[in-house]
Amino acid sequence: MREAGINVVAIGFESPIDEELKAMNKHIKSADMIAFTRVFHKFGFLVHGMFIFGYPLKEGTHLRCRQRNA
Predict the structure, then answer these.
(1) pLDDT tens for each residue of 26-57
(2) Which single residue of 25, 38, 54, 57 could bond 61 by disulfide (Cβ 3.0 to 4.6 Å)?
(3) CA distances (Å), 36 to each of 1, 13, 32, 45, in order?
(4) Is 62 helix (H, G, I), strand (E, B) or coil?
(5) Which pLDDT score is estimated for 64?
(6) For residues 29-45, b (16+ Cβ closer than 10 Å) or e, as one string?
(7) Does the pLDDT of residue 21 top 60, yes or no?
(8) Residue 41's pLDDT is what?
């Protein structure tokens, strides 16, 4: 990709919240997304991440959000 002149990748991460990812039937965890992003950065790519915030969960489900330094 770099040899083809691509410098930026756009990735639809969907959500940084594991509970939401599970509800969306995504088979990835937020920690995997961070690792994936670091690989792109290692090879000099700028990552444009796209997210959905406030994905509706089952009634009575509560989320615990925590801040992480990527």
Answers:
(1) 899 999 999 999 999 999 999 999 988 777 77
(2) 57
(3) 16, 10, 6, 12
(4) coil
(5) 57
(6) ebeebeeebeeeeeeeb
(7) yes
(8) 95
Task: Kindly report each contact of residues 13-17 with a partner whose C-beta sits within 8 Å and lies 24 or more positions away, as own/partner.
Answer: 13/49, 13/50, 13/51, 14/50, 14/51, 14/52, 14/55, 15/51, 15/52, 15/53, 15/55, 16/51, 16/68, 17/55, 17/63, 17/65
Local structure of 58: helix, strand or coil = coil
The pLDDT of 16-21, averaged and rounded, is: 87
How far, in Å, CA of 17 to CA of 44, rounded? 26
Alpha-carbon span 28 to 5, nearest angstrom: 29
Beta strands 46-51 and 8-14, pairing class: parallel
